[in-house]
Task: structure prediction
Amino acid sequence: MTGDQYRYRVYDSVHKYYCEAERFTLDDSGRLCEHFDNYIDETSCKNYPKGLIVEFCTTMKDIEGVLVFDRDIIAWTREKYSLKGVVQFDIYGDNEDYVVFEHLGWNCRGVTLPDIFNVHQGKVIGNIHDNPELLETA
Result:
């Protein structure tokens, strides 16, 4: 197994951009801490500005080998239908796992990531921050 299960990215929802991941680390309690000149500022762990969103790697890759992260938008085909959805960590059945919620305009239905990638050949087409228009329906 690779270190992908420990990868994450950080989105600044106030300034609307992805931060450099190397700038941050998570402490033992899961708090986000910022690095300053090769040391971790423990005060930043307690008082970090609101609006930063940590998006964890699912450890899965799409059909083109792209790592999939929480809040990515995935496209896939089932039967004759082209579908899109957002990756989210959720309870699905009896398990906690990453699920893609199909966006069908009026309806959302959860599908597990293994089904999307192993059965329906899903592909990452964007994320909800940079490409929200990809989820709009006609």
Residues 113-119 form the longest helix (7 residues). Residues 63 and 121 are 6 Å apart (CA to CA). Residues 3-55 form one domain.
